[in-house]
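User: What would this chain look like folded?
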Amino acid sequence: MTPASTLPAAADPPAGATPPPGNRPWPLVGGRADLLRFFADPIHHLLALERLGPVATLSAGNRSLVFAFGAEHNRTVLSDPAAFHNAVEVPVPLPPGSAATRIFRGVMSMNGDEHRRHRRLLLPVVSKAAVATYADDIGEVTRRHLDRWAREGTVDLGPASVSMTSEVLMRCLFDSEDSGEGAAVAHLGTRLLGLFTSPWTLLLPVRLPGLPYTRFLETCEQVEGLVRRMIAARGRQPGVHRDVLSLVLRARDPEEGDLTDDQVIAHLVSMALAGHDPVTAALSMTLVLLSQHPAAAGAVGEELDAALRGADPTPEDLHRLPLLDGVLQEAMRLLPPIVHLLFRRPQAPCALGPHEVPAGSTLILSPLVTHRDPQVFPDPLRFDPLRWQGAGPGPYAYLPFGAGPRTCLGAGLSQAILRLQLAQILQRFRPEVVPGARVDLAVRAANLVSRGPLPMRLVPRARARTTVEPIGGDIHRLVRLPGAAA
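Assistant: Here's the prediction, encoded as structure tokens.
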């Protein structure tokens, strides 16, 4: 694959450019029909489209929805936000003046000067210095949840990770110790993301009692109301609070002045929704993979002993933990927390390789597919944390949180949370799945999530086994695990 630093920018379609290949179309052809097909099972369609080539469409002859795979196309699209606008608008009509029209107007939905101005305002909120101030809260919440997991013996890793992540994010975003608020945010956010791209929401965008579209609009109202009450309780006065909410409330544009309450709500909802599922998935999937690779888990434990000598990890310690970093990077390579990037829209006809992509089409890029490129990652289905020693693959070949000028704003915070939590877990425990466990995967909005229970034990390291308890489920289509057929 061409090194990312030498890749061309967006180009005009060459003479003789051809339409991208695609699958046999359904009788109901059109952008909405293809969108319904894709969101019904994104992982299946991404893996199938990968076999058609680096640029493909879901339906042959219909270029309203185009998929582009690999570092070359990632760089072309993600490095040029002026030519490829971000397009994360809700794919259903929204009633004018509704809560849904307001909460989906965060920085992720902006383009051009508006996006640059708001991103510049928000960057100090998630700077390295700001993230460091959250470390004590991350550590305290993680210790408390791990103590409970240890007492319970076997936990359902999905809900347990959600609970811990929700409380951590509530501390970082809102400086809240109210577990009820954290549970409410997690519950509403999970419901909202599920309804956002539900095929039934897309198919029947009608506000009638009981329909998913109606529940989607009602959930938007509940989310907005919850965050608005938090803002009212906090106010805009300077104070001791150091959370994201307080920093955003104090952010001021020299030309535009203070952010409005609506803008603050939209940015905070965007951060909460963008961070919750990816952090939860990355942590739980890393533990699943380590349960199948006990030697790797043991090696990380030894690294932590040597580096920390029993002390709690801090952000300053993380650069001394290369194996921990490699484990997490490899887990996010194989099972990326963000499966595909929603969405990019070319502002003029352009070329991706030999194929023409029309203006206004919807482009989807995929970390899931990009991370499986054997030219960049030899034996790509194998879990190999040591592959991260030495030079990395480049930002457009490995992009668990996106790449380019619009890299996920909260990527630094998310990765700090993950590394600090994983270090605490592996200092004390080894993860072991229970006999007969399955790991089945799905996509909510663009985020990887587990389906069904995921029972796991955190065993004290001194009592950990070196044998592997095999797992079932469709995780095997994404990673080759010990004991599975080659």
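Residues 1-9 have pLDDT under 50 and may be disordered. If you want, I can go into more detail on any region.
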